[in-house]
Amino acid sequence: MNASPYLSNAGEFLVTLVFEIYLLAVMLRFLLQTVRADFNNPVSQLLIKVTNPPLRYLRRWIPGYGGIDWPSILLLFVLKAIELALIALIKTGALPAPAGHVLLSIAHLLKLVVWIYIVIILIQVIISWLNPGAYSPVTILMNQLTRPLLNPIRRTVPPTGGLDWSPLIALIFLNLVLILLIAPLQDYGNLLAGYNMRLL
Questions:
Q1: For the chain, what are the domain ranges?
Q2: Per-residue pLDDT tens digits for 100-155
Q3: Cα separation, 165 vs 183, whole angstroms
Q4: Over the Cα atoms of the chain, what is R_g?
Q5: For the chain, what is the total number of helices (H) and then of strands (E)?
Q6: pLDDT score of 1
Q7: pLDDT in tens, 16-54
Q8: What is the DSSP string of 26-70?
C-alpha cells in the first residue's frame, strides 16, 4: 500500500491548520481596526498580543497610510502566499505560476473575510434566539464588527413585526459574493497557476 497520499493529506491538513489559525487572528485584528472596535476589549488585547511580533517588525518599514493598516495587509498576503505555496508543493511537487499564485492568495483572503462575517452573523442570530440581550466581550466585538454591514440594511429594510431581516439579507448577499465574485476569481487564479481544476 502506498502511504504517499495519506502523508500528503496529513501534511496539507497541518499546513492549513497552522496557517489558517494565525491568518484568522491577523484578519480579525485588521477588520476590528477597520471598524474602529474597542481595543481595550480582552479579546482585542489577545489578538494584539498574538499578532504583534511580525506586525511590529513590518511597521518599521511600512507605515499605515490613508487610514489603512498596510502592514497587516502585507502580512496577510505573505502568510496566505506561503500557505498556498506549501500546499502546492505537497500536492504537485512544484510551485504555482506567479500570476496565479498572487490571484489565488487574494481570492482566498477575500473568502476568509466573507466567511468570518457569515459565521459571526450566524452566531449572532443563534445568540439572539437563545439568550437575547447577552453581553460579553465577544458579543460586543461581534456587534462592532457587523454593525457597518447590518445597519445600512436595517435602514433600508426596517424590522417588521419585531423580526430583524438584516442578518438574512446580509447572509444572502455574502453567499452571492462567494458564488459570483470569489469563486470565479479562484478558478481564474488556478488557471493562471497552471492547474486545469480548482487545486488551490
A1: 4-193
A2: 999 999 999 999 999 999 999 999 999 988 888 778 889 999 999 999 999 999 99
A3: 26
A4: 19
A5: 7, 0
A6: 41
A7: 999 999 999 999 999 999 999 999 999 999 999 999 999
A8: HHHHHHHHHTT--TTSHHHHHHHHHHHHHHHHHHTT---BTTB-H
- Length of the chain measured in residues: 200
Q: At what angle do helices 42-59 and 70-92 cross, to 10 degrees?
A: 80
C-alpha cell at 70: 498596510
Q: Which three cell numbers, joined as nine digits, stand for 67?
A: 487610514
Between the CA of residue 33 and those of 47, 84, 87, 116, 122, what are the distances in Å?
11, 26, 30, 15, 22
Task: Give CA angle at 90 (95, 6), nearest 5°.
Answer: 165
DSSP structural state of residue 163 = B
Q: Cell numbers of 3, please? A: 502511504
Residue located via cell numbers 466581550: 137
Q: At residue 177, what is the residue type?
A: V
d(CA 152, CA 170): 10
The answer to whether the Cα torsion of 123, 125, 128, 131 is positive or negative is negative
**Per DSSP, what are the bridge partners of residue 160?**
163
Longest Cα–Cα distance in the chain: 62
